[in-house]
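call fold target=Thioredoxin domain-containing protein
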Amino acid sequence: MEHPKVQEIIEKQVLTVAKAMEDKLDEEISALDRLDLDDLEALRERRLQQMKKMAEKRSRWISLGHGEYTEIFSEKDFFSTVKASDRVVCHFYRENWPCKVMDKHLSILAKQHLETRFVKIHAEKSPFLAEKLKIIVLPTLALIKNAKVDDYVVGFDQLGGTDEFSTEELEERLAKSQVISFEGESSLNASRSGSQARSVRQSTKADSSDSE
């Protein structure tokens, strides 16, 4: 008995949404129609300036080592690195299997997220930093913004509690702390990273014979 009424309500809701979308599109088309040549030139110039600024940012990031996952060999270099880049993910590691798993994921993300510097430092060779930042469990990721440690990813507990987590899961965790962005550079290799993430654990095992 109530079926026709439910169907009628749904149809009305669909029509309402469709009408709202159509009205919005009409407004945007009208706005474009009202633009004169000067307006279009101003939009073009603004877009060119945005592209120029992004290119300058890219060049600066690359000059600072962004786009690659690299190792820092001294505590002094750690401080200079976090001062130079607005956003840094620093992996405190030792030579063990869990840290090798983390290495594989971070090397993928470093290439996708040019806006963030990805580095690692040997925790046992950096006693001052390890004590100052209270690094106990390895691996630990220090998530650094504007030269200050803003958050940590300790071990794999926040990644499902297993070493079989995907690159995307780690990416989502880093994005939650806003140490990486999902805009611009961050999505360049999104489609390709899925297949890479699935093979991370397998390839790491093939590379590693000295776990733990």
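return ok
Confidence is low (pLDDT under 50) at residues 184-212. The helical segments are 3-34, 37-63, 75-84, 97-112, 127-132, 167-176, 190-198, 200-207.
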